[in-house]
Specification:
The complex is a heterodimer.
Chain A lengths: L3 E3 L2 E5 L4 E7 L6 E7 L5 E8 L4 E4 L2 E6 L4 E6 L8 E8 L7 E3 L3 E6 L1
Parallel strand pairs in A: 2-11
Antiparallel strand pairs in A: 1-3, 3-8, 4-5, 4-9, 6-7, 7-8, 9-10, 9-11
Chain B lengths: L4 E3 L2 E4 L5 E6 L6 E7 L5 E8 L2 E5 L7 E4 L6 E5 L8 E8 L10 E2 L3 E5 L1
Parallel strand pairs in B: 2-11
Antiparallel strand pairs in B: 1-3, 3-8, 4-5, 4-9, 5-6, 7-8, 9-10, 9-11
Classes of the chains: A mainly beta, B mainly beta.
């Protein structure tokens, strides 16, 4: 079945770039997503990328997709304290099925 | 801004008791979901619901689970006889289009269920 793996913690200094990595298994995924969860809040969609794209940029966020290696990354430029959260990678099920498979989430810790 | 709301935020129950978790999805959304996250583990899909019926469900969603949309606004998850391993954060989500059409999922803040 589908599986999504990501490291549990990432610590970066304020102002540096953060790169959160994810690997997935389902090659038929149509879309891949990054969700953000702040303390006490639900998951919020940050960005998504269609599987036939290599890169997507949205302000401070850059998503890179290596479909051959089934590797997805999220780069946050100029990381701020407000970026401190858990970041979840997710893949959509293939074939138009209606579900997402999430990773465990990466805790992004910002050092002053 | 419209949001998905969930109640209760935290429920503690005894093993074997029935629990109902409630969700009010965003009003013009058509697709509804329940996910759960056991502490330290992945966010897992439970069930999706469209047009007043279940469209997908996972292996976790066995006979002790049920969902209902009793009126035009609420979407509930019932666990008939809770087990210790049902302790988790349960997230409700809704979407205007469904995931298959890259519809964004809008999540609630979650209901934490603790089974003793």
């Amino acid at each position: 079945g589908e599986d999504v793996e990501q490291s549990l913690f990432l610590s970066v200094r304020e102002g540096d770039s953060s790169v959160i990595n994810c690997t997935y298994t389902d090659s038929s995924s149509t879309y891949l997503y990054w969700y953000k969860q702040e303390p006490g809040a639900g998951l919020q969609l940050l960005t998504y990328i269609f599987s036939n794209m290599d890169m997507k940029q949205d302000q401070r966020l850059t998503v890179l997709l290596n479909k051959k290696d089934k590797h997805l990354s999220l780069r946050i430029a100029d990381t701020q304290t407000g970026d401190s959260a858990i970041y979840f990678c997710a893949e959509s099920w293939g074939g138009g099925a209606d579900g997402l498979t999430f990773g465990k989430g990466t805790h992004l810790i910002i050092q002053p | 801004e419209p949001e998905v709301t969930q109640t209760p935020s935290h429920q503690v129950t005894q093993m074997g008791q029935e629990v109902i978790l409630r969700c009010v999805p965003i009003s013009n959304h058509l697709y509804f979901y329940w996910y759960r996250q056991i502490l330290g583990q992945k966010v897992e899909f439970l069930v999706s619901f469209y047009n007043n019926e279940i469209s997908e469900k996972s292996e976790i969603f066995d006979d002790q689970f049920s969902v209902e949309r009793p009126d035009g606004s609420n979407f509930t998850l019932k666990i008939r006889s809770t087990k210790l391993e049902d302790s988790a954060m349960y997230f409700c989500a809704s979407s205007p289009q469904g995931v298959g059409n890259t519809g964004e999922l809008f999540f609630g803040e979650g209901s934490r269920l603790t089974v003793l």
